[in-house]
Amino acid sequence: MYSYIKGIVEEIHLDSIVIENNSIGYKINVSSNTIKNVELGKEAKIYTKMIVREDDISLCGFATREEQNMFNLLTSVSKIGPKVGLSILSFASPGQLGAFILSEDTAKLSKAPGVGKKTAERIILELKDKIDKNSVEFEPTLLSKTPIGISQDEAVDALVALGYSQQESKEAVEKCKKAGMNTEDIIKKSLTYIMSKSLR
């Protein structure tokens, strides 16, 4: 119903703000990141999403489209409602969350209020393929990288379990591994390498 509301910030609370527009005060639930971007008595433009429930109608607001997009992604995950979505956005910026999800960093995600290990795993599972690196300013420096030696050993073991010799498995992994790659990526690249080699 509302794409955004632009007006004077009349009140700032712990998890909400009130913006006056045309003599109407709109109470908007927001994250702490959005609160940092507004000033009492100053004009602000807040992107909004209306939440309609049987017993309540409320507005959630965001200082940027990136934050709004991340909120929409988070609340698309089962068992994550608007309140938890905003608390997650208070814990980290959209860029940081994108990095945690893409790097499958359950340890960092599970530290967000209302998010345990199982919920963090569900967020990663459901959103990893939906994170748009072009629209979310995801921060590569925040990616948690598994030490390449561990990923390499696991990949070799997996290839051996698939029936390839220790020598050809090790050779393929050595040729295909790159910094930042996880075990699954190394295995996929190595299988492609072995298959292409056998066709020569």
TrEMBL record:
**Keyword hit for Cell inner membrane:** no
**Where in the cell is the protein located?**
Cytoplasm
Grouped into one coarse class, the protein's main location is cytoplasm
In this protein, which residues make up the domain named Helix-hairpin-helix DNA-binding motif class? 72-91, 107-126
Q: Which InterPro entries match?
A: DNA_helicase_Holl-junc_RuvA_I (IPR013849), Hlx-hairpin-Hlx_DNA-bd_motif (IPR003583), NA-bd_OB-fold (IPR012340), RuvA (IPR000085), RuvA_2-like (IPR010994), RuvA_C (IPR011114), RuvA_C_sf (IPR036267)
User: What's a Pfam family this protein contains?
Assistant: RuvA_C
Tell me the keywords, alphabetical order: ATP-binding, Cytoplasm, DNA damage, DNA recombination, DNA repair, DNA-binding, Helicase, Hydrolase, Nucleotide-binding
Recorded GO MF terms? ATP binding; four-way junction DNA binding; four-way junction helicase activity
UniProt-listed GO biological process terms: DNA recombination; DNA repair
What CDD domains does the database record attribute to this sequence? Answer: UBA_RuvA_C
Q: Which GO terms describe its cellular component?
A: cytoplasm; Holliday junction helicase complex; Holliday junction resolvase complex
tRNA-binding in keyword set: no
Region Domain III, as annotated, extends over: 151-200
Give the UniProt family note.
Belongs to the RuvA family.
> What's the subunit arrangement here?
Homotetramer. Forms an RuvA(8)-RuvB(12)-Holliday junction (HJ) complex. HJ DNA is sandwiched between 2 RuvA tetramers; dsDNA enters through RuvA and exits via RuvB. An RuvB hexamer assembles on each DNA strand where it exits the tetramer. Each RuvB hexamer is contacted by two RuvA subunits (via domain III) on 2 adjacent RuvB subunits; this complex drives branch migration. In the full resolvosome a probable DNA-RuvA(4)-RuvB(12)-RuvC(2) complex forms which resolves the HJ.
Per the record, the domain comment is:
Has three domains with a flexible linker between the domains II and III and assumes an 'L' shape. Domain III is highly mobile and contacts RuvB.
What is the protein's name according to its record?
A: Holliday junction branch migration complex subunit RuvA
Which species is the source of this protein? Answer: Asaccharospora irregularis DSM 2635
Task: Give the gene name.
Answer: ruvA
